[in-house]
Write a structure and sequence with these properties.
- The chain has 229 residues and is α/β, with parallel strands linked by helices.
- It is 44% helix and 14% strand.
- The strands form 2 sheets. It has a 7-stranded mixed β-sheet, sandwiched between helices. A two-stranded antiparallel ribbon has the order 3-4.
- Helix 1 packs antiparallel against helix 4.
- It is globular and about 55 Å long.
- The N and C termini lie close together (11 Å).
- About 3% of the residues have low confidence.
């Protein structure tokens, strides 16, 4: 782990850590290939504008409808693209996505330490819960804040704030681990300590520009980083 550009903390001694919040796709869940396959399926045969791979990756971490709305010219097209995307995602979810190898051991270690945990994702709640269930991560992440839980999504602070409220912890008692600038901006805006995951699809430069407190090279380094914070 390494320090990123520092975000000011409140004056005084830092309170003990009580909770760890996680993003899902690209952080705990190895699903980027699935998300790109769904995008390509949704736009196959579509006669309007198409996103590039880079365009789509840039929007990962924001709600699907927001991503698709940049290319749909009418509400009908938007719903068509959404339905094609979701149909492919549902059909291929278990075949093309899985938990990162270090996810379960790290979650188990954090649970052993008595830390509360929550998922803060822009994926729809039902699909996020399915991902937790079939990967075995669900017992470690009983609190799920998804796209259906809030009206103002990442990079707004509302998803992180809701997770904190459900866990009954203060912002200065929590950290948020995510792989996208949207995660970092959301966490920073909510006042939590942010940890940028470098194993996702975003570049180091993109993540550094979003001003996380820490950069993390590998998920299995998280417990040591929490010890050293």
């Amino acid at each position: 782990a390494e320090k990123a550009r520092r975000v000011p903390l409140a004056f005084g001694m830092r309170p003990p850590l009580k909770a760890v919040l996680f993003d899902l796709d690209g952080t705990l869940f190895d699903s980027i290939d699935l998300l790109l396959a769904c995008m390509r399926h949704a736009f196959e045969g579509f006669d309007g504008p198409h996103p590039t791979t880079e365009d789509w990756v840039a929007g990962i971490g924001t709600p699907l409808m927001k991503q698709l709305a940049a290319y749909a010219r009418t509400d009908t097209e938007l719903l068509l693209l959404r339905d094609r995307y979701r149909a492919h995602q549902t059909a291929m979810h278990r075949q093309l996505a899985r938990a990162f190898p270090d996810a379960l051991p790290v979650l188990h270690e954090l649970q052993r330490r008595g830390l509360a945990m929550a998922l803060v994702t822009s994926k729809g709640n039902a699909l996020a819960q399915e991902a937790l269930d079939f990967t075995g991560m669900a017992p470690f992440l009983p609190v799920l804040v998804g796209a259906d839980s809030v009206t103002r999504h990442k990079p707004a602070p509302e998803p992180v704030q809701l997770a904190l409220a459900l866990l009954k912890v203060r912002a200065d008692e929590a950290v948020f681990v995510g792989d996208s600038p949207h995660d970092v901006h959301s966490g920073n805006a909510a006042g939590v300590e942010t940890i940028a995951a470098l194993w996702g699809p975003f570049t180091r430069a993109q993540l550094v520009a979003s001003a996380p407190r820490h950069l993390l090279e590998r998920l299995d380094q998280l417990p040591a980083l929490l010890d050293a914070r």
